[in-house]
Amino acid sequence: MDCIFCKIIAGTIPSKKLYEDDRAFAFADIDPKAPVHVLIVPKKHIPSLAEAESGDEALLGHLQLVAKQLAAEHNLSNGYRTVLNSGEEAGQTVFHLHLHLIGGRQMNWPPG
């Protein structure tokens, strides 16, 4: 497979791993947009949310709970944002579903 995130999960591309279990892998974003910027990816290759299937509900919820745990570990008690871009117009550049955990600074609305 030619997916960069699959290669990171497999360990063939180095990353700053922050979390791993049997369903998810999380690592520091190499181009952070905030003091804390973590990417949380499922180990199952799903290109984007548009390609998720009905059997993926538990996995998608698990990614959010991993984000909650990592937010606590990074002392983001004042707030944080989770973002899941789906498709090019949304800004998705790597087509392996991934959840951004962003925090450590004031967020603005509307985003982007």
Describe what this molecule looks like in 3D.
The chain has a single domain, classed as 2-Layer Sandwich (HIT family, subunit A). It has 112 residues and is an alpha+beta fold. It starts with a helix and ends in a 9-residue tail after the last strand. The longest helix has 17 residues, at 57-73. It has helices at residues 4-10, 57-73; strands spanning 17-20, 24-28, 36-42, 80-83, 99-103. It has a five-stranded antiparallel β-sheet with strand order 1-2-3-5-4, with helices on one face. The radius of gyration is 13 Å and the shape is globular. The protein has two helices and five strands, in the order αβββαββ.
Stated plainly, the CATH topology is called HIT family, subunit A
Give the overall shape: globular
CATH level-two architecture:
2-Layer Sandwich
- The helix tally amounts to 2
What's the rounded overall pLDDT mean? 96
Count the E strands: 5
Helix content estimate? 10-25%
Helix/strand order: HEEEHEE
